[in-house]
Amino acid sequence: MIERENKKNSRTVQKEARPKEILSAALNVFESNGFAGTRLEEVAKFAGISKGTIYLYFDNKDELFKACVRETVGKPIAKTLESAINFEGSTEKLLHELAEKIGDTFSDPEYRSIFFLIVSEGKRFPKLVKFYFDEVITPSVSRLSNIIQRGVDRGDIKSSISEEDALLLLSPVIFINVWNRLFGNEKKINLKDTLHSHIDIWLDGMRPENK
Amino acid sequence: MIERENKKNSRTVQKEARPKEILSAALNVFESNGFAGTRLEEVAKFAGISKGTIYLYFDNKDELFKACVRETVGKPIAKTLESAINFEGSTEKLLHELAEKIGDTFSDPEYRSIFFLIVSEGKRFPKLVKFYFDEVITPSVSRLSNIIQRGVDRGDIKSSISEEDALLLLSPVIFINVWNRLFGNEKKINLKDTLHSHIDIWLDGMRPENK
Amino acid sequence: MIERENKKNSRTVQKEARPKEILSAALNVFESNGFAGTRLEEVAKFAGISKGTIYLYFDNKDELFKACVRETVGKPIAKTLESAINFEGSTEKLLHELAEKIGDTFSDPEYRSIFFLIVSEGKRFPKLVKFYFDEVITPSVSRLSNIIQRGVDRGDIKSSISEEDALLLLSPVIFINVWNRLFGNEKKINLKDTLHSHIDIWLDGMRPENK
Amino acid sequence: MIERENKKNSRTVQKEARPKEILSAALNVFESNGFAGTRLEEVAKFAGISKGTIYLYFDNKDELFKACVRETVGKPIAKTLESAINFEGSTEKLLHELAEKIGDTFSDPEYRSIFFLIVSEGKRFPKLVKFYFDEVITPSVSRLSNIIQRGVDRGDIKSSISEEDALLLLSPVIFINVWNRLFGNEKKINLKDTLHSHIDIWLDGMRPENK
DNA sequence: AATGAATGAGGATTCATTCAT
DNA sequence: GATGAATGAATCCTCATTCAT
After folding, report:
1. Does a structural domain hold residue C98?
2. pTM for the complete prediction?
3. Run of H or E including D209
4. A8 has a pLDDT exceeding 80
């Protein structure tokens, strides 16, 4: 009885867990079938609940989809931002650290799913794209810019670098994810390894003495 | 009477043009709404015909979609292959030439549409993905490999290069297309310029004296 | 040139033959697929013409169907009526002659088709049923009644016979046709032989001394 | 609480009754309009439900049709089989008993509907025809044959009887049903009375002394 | 007269959403 | 809160009918 005040009974636990279970199931099915191709019945089956229950937690299919993205994207955002603090060591070290972070993020299948959903369904949900841009892309790019600016200041990177050149440092992340999704069966590319290798080449090519 | 043999009446001309008109409209709508989200009525409206007419030329929605991809992908395939012949000049020159070709290909909105449809709907049409891989990706990669191998042989590129490193030379193509599709409103990246710049950096980073 | 006046050129012949060709094809397809299940395109294919041509000769699907029935039913009607004249010989002889006539009529697949179309689609075309009843059934029954009445008068048939008993003399015609259509694959029944046998049994059972 | 185990709530009751309601409505409409001519919306209206509900219980129109036949045919099959046991009394008595049973069966409008659906749509559903032949026709014929063979053995029926002659004993059943369906408005024939009369005539005609 | 491309109303089927239990 | 039966709007697809050639 005393415990009751501090503990949530299983019903309550279940109740609070429901939305996350649904979102997880929904993400899964949305990713496989796209927005329009997803039947809520299948989402329900995946979540082990009935169709009607989804509507206790989400207004409709659209809202469910948006919630999927917002919810799943939250984690990596937090991770990105929190790690944005330490600025010690060489440019090389910082970039490889960043590569590790990004690699970790994309090693999460849920995050990959979100990424592809935004690519696939972005036209139907422009607000989500804006949200993603503001909350995920902009901070990440900003952080990358900081590292690079610091590299220029330290003399690690040539000063003629453009904003686009900096962005391209991360282009393998997109490329490899798209590649693996489509052609992973034929030939799978390792994201982290290849990204580290790419950074090395890029840094070599970016040395100030290269014009 | 003589003309009769060489002339097609307007009915025939119309009929022969129909499939292409329909495919063009379909590509447009599929690209905006995805496969499942596309209503054939809208395709018909776009093509300026009626619903039923689509079925005079295509068995069903699936076949229409496949035809879209196959038809549109044909052109770049041809372009890729035809240009595969000349091998003169420096590695740098060849790579920049390749960049131009790719840039031209992706400057065609139809081709970009196909690319995104394959990314978005690949799971539903694995055969199309395989087709795209075999007909578009493999020849392109093969051609890139030839240039790079030749570069290694000529001493332009360091010999420790991996297959993945070579592939990444093209990663900006994917990255920029995805970026522009999603965030083109916020900040548009120029494909050709950026790709050329990237190639220069990459070549500098790949010089044999860099380790 | 002289011949021209007496002869119809092939175009004209073809033109006059068209309606019959179409009706024959239509009957075939209607019989296989029923009214609603028949596509006019298939009728056209069967007739070796194009869909549109049907509409040069028939207003619409309904009229085509009715024409099928009326046209095909005409022949047996004529046959029935013309043969209704001779009344010589024993009742037995007359009945067996009638059996032969009916057997001949139903040996024509077109006539069987009509019969089944009327059974199957009668509810949709009550006027056709009425037409069939008036033009085919009533005269036939009337003729049968005449024979039987004459048989009663001659003392060949007992006088207690009812109208229904008389009708039943022909019940094997329907039974055997239905049977063969449905179960002909399993076991086919010969219409004429069995009908003759049935008449003999019936006549024996109908002798005045049987009560 | 105790009641709970024995009671079904109204929802459950409704759900369990649905298939039969739908089948009954469907049989009705199929019988009126044939398979192709039936709109599922009309079936739904007849059943007092909505279009979609049909699909909760039947996969598609074809399956609904088959279920109609199988379900409705079940009863008479059972009746036929159960009554196949008693073999006492004269041949005459047995045949008149059989006539009663058959008359009862066909007095059920649902059974008549099935019969006509099989005649009308048999070509489209050959498996149903086979099913009907095996489950309904064969047992009935077999039973009739037993009675007649016994009649021959007892000296009630002449031994020269053929299998077809025996079958014809039931030809009025088909004839009268077809007649009444088509021409019932003009002149309705009573199945049982006429069948009994027919049996008497047939038996008289079949006496051994008749040749 | 003949064609067959085009139309669009009509019907089968699906599935997001509601709501009685 | 949870269920899942029921709904009906939405969408694919067919085919009778029209009409320009």
Report:
1. yes
2. 0.89
3. none
4. no
